[in-house]
Amino acid sequence: MRILVSMLAFGLLVVATAEAHVTVSPRESTLGSNQVYTVLVPAEGGAATSQTVLEIPDGVVVSRVKAGGGFKFDVKREDDRIVQITWTMDVHPGSYAEFQFIARNPEEGTELTWKAQALHPDGTSTDWVNPRGEPRPASVTSLVAAAQ
């Protein structure tokens, strides 16, 4: 019985580790509102992460990016709108980092798809850009109407 329980616990740990990826929270936000978004970046498996690149979905207007915490960040702009944020910080295996920014949600739509890329010191990357249900899915925030 102990062996079965140990095997089950190990299996759950392997699944959790395999699915660890760059996520953006909250999972639900309000249309047209200002929101503090948190980007969670775990080190993937046995590889460290040195940079995290987040694409800002159309209609989202980033107003501030939180500084400090031992990391640097750069933004890419198109027509005065921030379209990408790159955080640079060594995230070692077994640890994670959190980054935050404030943004205004679009007035219309049903969800925001946050495409992200984790860059590793060896020059490889792990891209979290696919639709739900596929390998390496992008993080998604559902948008709901404001309560009236």
Secondary-structure map:
Blueprint (H helix, E strand, L loop, with lengths): L1 H17 L4 E3 L2 E3 L3 E9 L6 E7 L5 E5 L6 E7 L2 E11 L4 E9 L6 E4 L1 E4 L5 E4 L10 E6 L4
Parallel strand pairs: 2-12
Antiparallel strand pairs: 1-3, 3-8, 4-7, 4-10, 5-8, 6-7, 9-12, 10-11
Keywords:
148 residues, mainly beta, Immunoglobulin-like, five-stranded antiparallel beta sheet, 11% helix
Structure in a nutshell:
The protein has 148 residues and is mainly beta.
Average pLDDT rating: 88
Give the uncertain stretches in residue-range form: 1-19
What structural category do the secondary elements indicate? mainly beta
What is the CATH first-level class name?
Mainly Beta
Radius of gyration: 17 Å
**Judging by the overall fold, what is the CATH architecture?**
Sandwich
Strand order of the largest sheet: 6-7-4-10-11
Count of individual helical segments = 1
CATH topology: Immunoglobulin-like
Helix fraction, binned, reads 10-25%
Give the name of the CATH superfamily. Answer: Uncharacterised protein YcnI-like PF07987, DUF1775
Terminal Cα span: 54 Å
